[in-house]
Amino acid sequence: MKRFFLAVTAPLLASTLVAGSIPFPIGNARAQESGAPRLAQLPRTPDQVVECELLIVGGGLAGTAAAYESLLMGHTVCMTELTDWVGGQISSQGTTALDESREQRRRLFYSRGYKELRDRVEAKYGELNPGQCWVSASCFLPADANAILMDMLADAQRQGGGELRWFPNTVVKDLSLNADGTHIDEVVAIRHSAAPGTAPLNTDFLSEMIEDAYTYENSARLSKEIIQFVPAGIVAKRGEGDVERRVDWFVVEATETGELIVLADVPYELGLDPKSPLNPSSPVTERDPYCTQGFTYTFAMERTAEPQTFDVPDYYSIYEPYYSWERERDSLPTAADHFDFVFTYRRLQNPRPRSSDRNVFGVPRASVGDISMQNWTWGNDYRPGTEFDNLILTEDQLAASGQLEPGGWLGGLRTDTLRKGEENAIGFFYWLTTGTTDSQIDDRFKEPDPYNRYLQGLDSPMNTAHGLSKYPYIREARRIIGRPSPGYESGFMISEVDFSWNDFGSEFYRENLDQSTYTSMRRYLAGLGTVDTFLPGADPNEFPVRTRSRIYPDSVGIAQYAIDFHPCMRDYPAEAPGNIERPGVRQAHGQAYPAQIPLRAMIPQRVDNMLVASKSIAASYSAAAAYRVHSFEWSVGAAAAHTIDFSLRNGVLPSELVENPASQSPMFEALRAELEASGNPVMFPNTSILNEDWGDWRPW
């Protein structure tokens, strides 16, 4: 089977394919059954013991933002990352096309670090959009994103007097909780390097080395170092004297799939939420943990002057029936127009002199020397959605595979699905250049275009020998269930109706919701008119509908993007000929108001010294489809850093700051004031509860 563009001899590791029943509800019962999980016996004495005030697990944009702000505030920060790049979405995952809402971008209303990132991109290239892509205001090369962010962290360290202890190629293997399970005492990680005499890292596909990376023992491919992270044990200094810390340190969950949520044994959700008044667009009545959004291995391709020849992989025929331009567009009458549409969509490099020939989006058409990154729904998106191929393993599947046992963690992913995502991505390049069929529209819109080169090698845009991104772009993760609070007796969650532009008054909702659910949903949307909805004879179809997002008294950050789905496929396998998207998932897809990040969404149940600063915040499936883009990740990371700094300085737990979420305590008001004073906004301009005119805030 021809999977490789370069000679790679590392063997495939065993798949974690384990079928299991739906774990409903997801909310790990292990703690109730056996007490707090304990650290497994290590195979040897740790090679390093490292002290931290903050341990950030995951070096994506959220983790980088948390480190950046913490360094400016003078903290000792440890940060681990599976790959060797910081930045996640814009570096190791290759999606260096910033997903931004129109009005937020027009006003440049972002966290200070995110604005600095954009400014540094513009300074490096002399323009914000060197790729002249049309999907974003800024498309650029992944390696440059990593370099810019590393420079930002170094500058923050110098400016603030903090210390960054950076651990690339490192995964968290295990952790220890205190006796009552409320405090993470220590974390054990494994850092890997290429074994002597073997090829450099970033040679192998992720599916071939990920389980090895989570194993303590050295292998023929990887040498391992065991690192034990422990609290620094520093007493906070204040002008009026010492303040005793309520916790010794904080651990920040910033992984791409919510790994610490499993290891710390806190309740979480995964996949489709059941239909409810708060998530009325859901297509299911019982949770489906297998249907998560598709993941994408991105790659880069270069436009060439001469036609290229291609060695088509043996597996290409398996995935060819999936690929498509997606739909016919009146403005794209020919196959060449469709190719240019996709190539310039996320073009990362468009060197001068640029073509004067413009396409329908007003950007230069593809020309020789252009580099394009591919991230296409009916292309290199891989969208499994059944118990036989889901990527993020459920609680039952993890238990069956032994990953919930002390020392058994292997990352919580199905490696065979990673492999198929890799194959699907490489196959998409061959379809772009050689394909003649289209799974969704007329084949006449697809013809070969051999004037393209697949970019691979350690000096390529993705910095991998195989040319795929170091890690797939993950759109959805495990999502914590927040702590119970008034109105959220089962645990706090951000929901679809909290910020969707939809008024939910269409025939679909009247026909598909029972009367009680429909009335409760409409009442929830009434805003300041809620009291009138309880009047005798009040007709839910006549209830007023607020034209804004929900306002959270405990907001610590901002987010705006459309509710944007890349739904799972209905059948197994995802690439089966004639397969379709899971019906009904896109019902919630659409415009969304500017939203807030409530602190309650970042605080897991039970564990007091862990904050979630990633896509794993407490949000429903539909809400997570909007709370996943670049600027959100930066804002939630900054919020985590300031909350931790405030907690350490004032001897207060984050959960204590929101004990009464209906109002702001003086302590929480002080935290919000510090966030805003530092250039990290907690709400959008002119978006108060009294303002019902948010019409300018359409994201697209």
Can you describe what's shown?
The protein has 700 residues and is α/β, with parallel strands linked by helices. The protein has a domain of 180 residues. The protein is 24% helix and 13% strand. The chain contains 17 helices and 21 strands. Helix 2 runs parallel beside helix 15.
Summary?
Pfam families: FAD_oxidored. Helices cover 24% and strands 13% of the residues.
How are the secondary structure elements laid out?
Layout: H1 30-34, E1 48-52, E2 54-57, H2 61-72, E3 76-80, H3 102-107, H4 112-125, H5 142-160, E4 163-167, E5 170-177, E6 184-194, H6 206-213, E7 222-231, E8 236-238, E9 241-243, E10 250-253, H7 259-263, E11 268-269, E12 295-296, E13 299-303, H8 316-319, H9 335-345, E14 347-349, E15 371-374, E16 381-382, H10 395-400, H11 415-434, E17 452-454, E18 479-480, H12 507-512, H13 515-524, E19 555-559, E20 595-598, E21 610-612, H14 621-624, H15 630-650, H16 654-657, H17 666-677
Parallel strand pairs: 1-7, 2-3, 2-10, 3-4, 10-21
Antiparallel strand pairs: 5-6, 6-7, 8-9, 11-18, 12-16, 13-15, 13-17, 14-15, 19-20
